[in-house]
Structures are given as structure tokens and as C-alpha cells.
Design a protein that fits this description.
It contains 8 helices and 14 strands. The chain has about 210 residues and is of the alpha/beta class.
Length: about 210
């Protein structure tokens, strides 16, 4: 699996071009569609997918979908609340992108297992395959997604991050912003949610 990253759009969103041989998917196209298309180098696109539907992760969806003919996928829970999720965009001076209605994500997409990881948004997902997981704004290097935006939920985010920590410890984490990290590193000492938090939460639930 070949992974190329483009830091795109006004919030430096990590847009990923992920390819196997001559077929690719584009994850979280936050802007700079021309640069993303250049990274494809003529390869076909099986899908354009958003880990969640905040404006900074979907700004280039219309242009990429039109240029490649690829279907666009996202979780239905985010599509149902698209305008509400992005109310802050206009407050911050950004335009809410007009995007096509996404096809609903199931348990599998292309080579990926699709993990529903709500908390940052109701429909946040992570995509896991081949020693890597693309976590959107759920898990970052030494940080986690914020839940103070519309429809964010801290309790759900903790459950989602703990679920990610059950992946193999050597999995590379490709987040929606910032540098890559590893599941094992974050599970050991993420200052917001680590495996100790997960164990404590599990005891409280029991």
C-alpha cells in the first residue's frame, strides 16, 4: 500500500492518496484538488471517502468526484446532520461546501475495514488495512479529537479511541491533521486517552 499525503485547505487537513498498484482511493480531500490529482499520476480512483463531514475534510470532493468519476462515501450519521455539523464554518468565516450526497459506508470499502469511531462527529469513521489506520479527527499524535463542536460527544470519543487501541500496536496512525504516529505509542502515553483510561472506563462500566 502506497500512501501520499497532501496538506490541503485552510486548516492544513491531511488528504491521503492511497494506492495499490494502479488503483487508488482519496481520503479526506480538504482542498487543493489539482495537487491531489497530480499525485494520482494517471491511476484510477475507486472511491473518494471522508472520515467525517466537517468542511475542512470535504472541500475538494465535488472537483475530485467530477474529475475522476469516483463515487463519494461517508457515514450516513454525518450526512443527516451536515449543515449542523458545519455551523461553525460560517462563524469562522469559511463557506460550507456544497457536496454530493455520499454513498453510505458499510463494514468494508476497497481494501479497508471501516470502523465507526464516533465522538468528534456522530459519523466519524477510521479506515484500517495493511498495517495502517486512517483516523480522521478521532486520534492524533499525542492528542485526540475535540468534542466541543456541534454534536461532539466525549464519552463516545473515549470508546472510539479505546477501540482503536485494540488494533495491532505497530499500526501506523495517519491522522486528519499533524504527523503520523503509532497505535502502541498513543495507547501507552497519549495524554488525553491512553490504555489506562480505557481499562479504568471498562471497570466502571462493569
Amino acid at each position: 500500500m502506497d500512501v501520499e499525503k497532501v496538506e490541503a485547505g485552510p486548516l492544513s487537513t491531511n488528504t491521503y492518496v492511497v494506492c495499490m498498484a494502479e488503483e487508488c482511493i482519496v481520503i479526506d480531500p480538504g482542498g487543493d484538488a489539482d495537487e491531489v490529482l497530480a499525485r494520482l499520476r494517471g491511476r484510477s480512483v475507486a472511491a473518494v471517502v471522508a472520515t467525517h463531514l466537517h468542511f475542512d475534510h470535504v472541500a475538494a470532493v465535488p472537483e475530485l468526484a467530477e474529475a475522476t468519476g469516483a463515487p463519494f462515501y461517508a457515514h450516513p450519521a454525518d450526512w443527516a446532520a451536515y449543515r449542523e455539523l458545519n455551523a461553525v464554518a460560517e462563524e469562522w468565516g469559511f463557506r460550507i461546501p456544497d457536496i454530493p450526497e455520499p454513498r453510505p459506508l458499510g463494514a468494508r470499502l476497497w481494501i479497508f475495514d471501516v470502523l465507526h469511531t464516533p465522538g468528534h462527529t456522530p459519523g466519524s469513521v477510521s479506515l484500517a488495512a495493511d498495517g495502517a489506520v486512517f483516523t480522521g479527527d478521532t486520534l492524533f499524535y499525542q492528542s485526540v479529537g475535540r468534542t466541543d463542536l456541534p454534536l461532539g460527544d466525549w464519552g463516545q470519543l473515549v470508546q472510539s479511541v479505546c477501540r482503536l487501541y485494540s488494533l495491532p500496536q505497530n499500526y501506523v496512525v495517519y491522522p486528519g491533521h499533524g504527523p503520523e504516529t503509532y497505535i502502541g505509542l498513543e495507547a501507552a502515553d497519549n495524554p488525553f486517552i491512553n490504555s489506562g483510561v480505557c481499562r479504568s472506563r471498562g471497570r466502571r462500566i462493569m
